[in-house]
Amino acid sequence: MSEKALKGLHASIDLIWKDPARKDYALKALAVHGRALQFASPELRADKEVVQKALKSDGWALQWASQECRKDRELVLKAMKKDVGALKFAAQELLADKDFALELLALNGLAYEFLSAELKADRQVAKAAVTQDGRALELMEFQGDRELVHKAVQQNGAAIEFAAPELKEDKLLVTSALKNDTSAYHWASQELRDDRELWLQICPERSERWRSVRQVMEEVSKEGALLPMVGDILAKDPEVVFRAAVQNPSVLRDAPELRNDTEFVLRVAQQDLRALAFAPELSREVALQALQISGNALEYLPQELREDKALVLGAVQTTGTALAFAGEDLRADPEVVLAACAADRTALLYAAPELRRDKAVWLYNGATPPSFDPPEEPVEEPKKDEEEV
Question: Where is the composition biased (Basic and acidic residues) (predicted)?
């Protein structure tokens, strides 16, 4: 953010503190940061126009809207379109309304997570969710329902991960998933994973090409999940595995020797940080090397390292938004939060609530807020005759 834009942002946010009840001030502030709604007066947080302005930039601003606004279908839909997670702040009566739920699911199947328990148990609702987004299967108790699982894998082959174990042995179902997304291989039963003929049946044109190292490397560079099917020898070749892992880091699950090679994992992480998630153990020394690639490597470090203040400070100083992955205590540490904000002001969104509401943190963008020490009280000299008494 440029210095000019930053000054404008500070000035806009400061308007709400000057007068939380002035609508024109609120609208100007909310145009640049929706979560500033939390500082507006109760009357303005109940004003639909004001809330709409906040939701236009940030769906999570819904949490500070009045109860009436959280019951408003139009406002809730607007919030969900910005971020499906904003539904956690919608009125419960809306999330228990089947017609409204189906309207939400037609736009985003993952809205299923926030519906009432009664609606989650409704098969029609579950079917609507997986039809729009197969990943919704993870959120429901219908994982053994073959028809619903089939719907899910038709939309997203990788949704087979969330199917009941017996359905991962269903060759027709797994074949359907594989045709949609070859990464579904990782979630099939071991018997089907070992069935190379199944793969060749799905992709018969590969039977000849897979005899050439050059062709194999070209193919796994485009579709890393194919790695386990290229044959035992090539599936262990470091360069073939590297090409596949850069395209799809999850293939490291099936390459235990290379997954244990720190240098190899860091090499893949240079291209895709997700490779760090498959390393069996990350020492502090390796973590430092990973954080030199990007502060966002913090996401893949063990919990104890995400609570290491020195490591976290190094991460947020280069990538402010890495604050999202810091330990809870550090997200409430002013020194860490100010360092993150200095690198990227949006990091404030990941700070502990008490710091998100701290005016000094909002306005000084990571700089040390000025302190104003009260002047020393003058000490009166005792009068001469009093000293003599």
Answer: 380-389
